[in-house]
Amino acid sequence: MGKRNMDALSEEEKRLFPLKTVTSVVSLFESILKRTTEPDLALLSIIVGCIENTLTCNQQILSGAKSTVITTTVDETSEKLLAIPPVRKEDDFPEIEWPIVEALYVKFRAVIKSSVDVTQYGCSEFATRELVKKVSDVIWNTLTRSYYKDRAHLQSLYSYLTGNKLDCFGVALAVVAGCQVLGFNDVHLALSEDHAWVIFGLDGKETAEVTWHGKGNEDKRGQPVDAGIQARSWLYVSGNPVICSRFTEVASLVSSINPSITATTDSLEVASMQQALLWVLYDTGHLTRYPMALGNLADLEELSPTPGRCHCGQLFSQAIEVARRCYGNSHVYPYTYQGGYFYRNRMYKEALESWANAADAIRSYNYSREDEEIYKEFLEIANELIPFVMKVEGSGHSARSILKDSECFAHLLRFYDGICQWEEGSCTPVLHIGWAKPLVNTISKFDSQVRRHVVISCSEVAEEDTPATKPQAKEQEKEERLVDSHVGGKTADQKAWLGSTVLAALTDLCGRTVLSPAFFLGPDTKTGSYTQAIHSLNISGTAASTDSPVKIVNKPKLYLRSHKMAGLKDLLLSEKLNTHAISLQLTAQSQVQLGGRKLRGEEAKDAKQEGRDANLSRPKRTRKE
């Protein structure tokens, strides 16, 4: 257990004060990050918190101070303002003096050291659960008696030391900083997408709750997070959080900076400082496993691109790649970040695909009321953003409209399929009539020919529950095997012609949804007859008014995994939509929910070996007479 030197900054670093430019703050961070020793979290949190709180104070606008305002587009329906204080000769930071920062730093160390007697917990090199709980109690008991869930600028130690207020992330950061003050360098942050806890002990194998979430579950502090992981809650990302080093913790406190002055106005200086610091951390390799920080940097780059840096679109893609490679696709926000970017830039097809990918990530979880933030995210996408896209695309008659693109329809169905599977096995329902109406309205925008162009298959469990779809799927698989066996020795182009052009032409001509290739080609079709068969096919009559060859279009394939969407398969592909039936099916109680929590993975295997239904978490109780 090493002791830290009270001189948190070198003399050279102290000469950078007073901090009054973004450049001076960046220089300070660069100097600290180049050290061989670990950075001091308390000191850095105080510095950035002081700057953030000073520049985002509402008094600056309310007092009528002269300022320039830049309007930037947030989405298609609203705008956000960037407030620029009067430009001075030097720069526009209020001067941040070292004596003020030092006084707050000394105060934090005094609070921790005077409240925690390390000798009571032995002289181990590693922290114990009791010590972590004690540091958490110290922070907790010095806060005001209120929970600040949606208040801005409460995530830094500056807020704690000047107002005794912290949000959820701020409490966790303060506990880690407190343990660092005591010399326990094995205590680190573990970050999900909406929660934070700590890891400690040898190899970081121990976990402990140290903060609150939602309405303040203080009774969880000190407990391991195993229960949340086993419940498959998104809040605990299936046990795949961002495990922080000390440098990643610096990245987290920078990423948590909030430039907002009001709901519609941002401080340009704070945003510029955050952007510059994130690039410093990016260049030093401390964002390589941090998808949320990469997404925040991409958002900042979209508003104000940095010359010579990669495009924000690349950063969004990089965040997704990290989430898939490092965290088993357990993180949802990288996809919603990217979807928001595509939406703001009118790339609506790409946005639908990103939102569908987000739903694919959420489908592996069970919904609980602690997942409120991601629920609101999906609700906004389903009930506001997608309907707006449909309104924009439906207002014209462009041949390139996404309403004429069957892939977009497939993305839409995959989005709702993920939401429905998220609901399955959950104690709390997700979908209600507020979800159903926008879905029905959106689906009705797509023509029946576009909808029927999507090849839909369902999971085995879903097919068992919807027997009407099972024979069709079997027949479809049989036909696909026949096509593969007949054209096995052909080139990819010939297969495309045979598998799509001929069938599509025959479907249009005969008015049938499915026609067996064996019926048309015959079992003894020879190699030289493919071209002859294709060229001998002529489209004529009222159904085809042109003699041009049929356009090759690959039918998008969609695999539905949720019970609800599998049950909607026939309704979605029918020529005339039964909107009432779709609404009823979508808002019906989840089929697996009736029997309790759905079992997955090893639990399902054990249940199968014991002869129990894998969809039931426990056998039904015998009714007492």
Topology (elements, then pairings):
Blueprint: H1 11-14, H2 22-33, H3 41-55, H4 59-62, E1 68-73, E2 79-84, H5 98-115, H6 129-141, H7 157-163, H8 168-181, E3 188-191, E4 196-200, E5 206-208, H9 226-230, E6 242-243, H10 246-255, E7 260-262, E8 265-267, H11 268-283, H12 291-303, H13 312-327, H14 333-344, H15 348-362, H16 372-394, H17 406-423, H18 433-443, H19 448-452, E9 455-458, H20 460-465, H21 470-486, H22 492-510, H23 517-521, H24 529-535, E10 557-560, H25 563-567, H26 569-573, H27 579-587, H28 602-609
Parallel strand pairs: 2-8, 9-10
Antiparallel strand pairs: 1-2, 3-4, 3-6, 4-5, 7-8
What do these coordinates show?
By secondary structure, this protein is an alpha+beta fold. It has a domain at 8-62 and 87-261: Roll (C8orf32 fold). Helices cover 50% and strands 6% of the residues. The protein contains 28 helices and ten strands. It has helices spanning 11-14, 22-33, 41-55, 59-62, 98-115, 129-141, 157-163, 168-181, 226-230, 246-255, 268-283, 291-303, 312-327, 333-344, 348-362, 372-394, 406-423, 433-443, 448-452, 460-465, 470-486, 492-510, 517-521, 529-535, 563-567, 569-573, 579-587, 602-609, and strands at residues 68-73, 79-84, 188-191, 196-200, 206-208, 242-243, 260-262, 265-267, 455-458, 557-560. The chain has a four-stranded mixed β-sheet with strand order 1-2-8-7. It has a four-stranded antiparallel β-sheet with strand order 5-4-3-6. It is globular and about 75 Å long. 39% of the residues are buried. The model is unreliable at 1-6, 59-78, 82-89, 461-552, 590-598 and 614-625 (pLDDT under 50).
